[in-house]
Amino acid sequence: MSITALRRRRTAPPETRLEKFQGFARDRAEQFGPYARSAQRNASERILQAREWCAPRLEVAANRVEDTVAPRVASALSATARRVEPPNPRSSRRRVPRAVMVTGIIAAGAVVAFGVYRARRAAQEAEWQENLDRVREQVRETKDQASSHGDDTRDEQASDYNGRVRT
Fold first, then answer.
1. Region of poorest pLDDT, from 12-26, 80-94, 126-140, 153-167
2. Distance CA 145, CA 153 (A)
3. DSSP state of 33
């Protein structure tokens, strides 16, 4: 028999092959269905048991890593970060001039405040001196008038002052 003849005999229409496979799958599903459900239940129970067994051990391992390895890793990372970080010259240069600038501003403010104080004091002293000079001049004028008029004037002035006559 030739190969092409064998091929022709074996090839059936696709609809019949599909129906044949569907029937085969239904038979196997009915046959192995209970086993599959049992396997599913067993697998879910085993997974829960494994999780119950594994959880405390993972917790202990995490604590050990946190207590022993993590500080070392953290210190190594921070040391590496310090070595890798480029120097920042602007921030170190700015701090000194800022401090000098603030000190200079405070000193300038103090000088201005002291200058204002001294100017006010000088103006007040000048005003007082002017008033003192005026009073002295009035006292001199009064003295001169008293000495030029004689004793009569004194009596008049004394009587005018308080309304009584002095003798």
1. 153-167
2. 8
3. H
